Amino acid sequence: MTGPEDAPLRLAAVDDHPFVLNGILWTVREYAPWVQVIGTAASVAELLAGGGGTADVVLLDLDLGVPADEADPTGNVRAVRAAGPQVLILTAEERPIPVRRAIAAGAVGLVLKSDPAHLLIDALRTARTGELAVSSRLAHALLTDENLVGHLAPRQIQVFELLAQGVGRGDIGRLMDPPAATSTVDTYLKGPRGPTARSAGRRSTPTRRCST
Q: Whole-prediction pTM value?
């Protein structure tokens, strides 16, 4: 069954491992017929040169190693965002600092390569809106950023703590103390990227200088 959130979505993907790209293609064909894969590539430059910038969402591997100038996840996210699409990070592991920097650069969520199909599809639905697609793993990564937590209100921290515990987004409001409406929870989830961007930007500056 599909709803308004399942209107046609143009998807592109960047990963330097062909079997990962093939798995993405199979997943969306089987579980999300409303998703049209318009391009896959091993690098950001290749994707954008081939028209990938017209996608609604780009799944972007966090750990591209080839070419060497695309080894910086932050730069890759910014390049895709500058072309227009929303960016959903795809990764095989959870390392809080690179994840936080990718979110600060403009990515809207995180999907593990080992995640079941329904988590990928749910993340695509949220990412297309430009809102933060917060999984339990991403919530944990954000909560371990002391600079970010210092900018969050107690109720926002409570939302992220519940997410980090694996509570579903639709159940968070009723478990809060006092309970909150789903619309209020959604509002809390829209707030983290501003302070994250400021704090991550300060940390990442020395790294960018060393790479030039």
A: 0.74
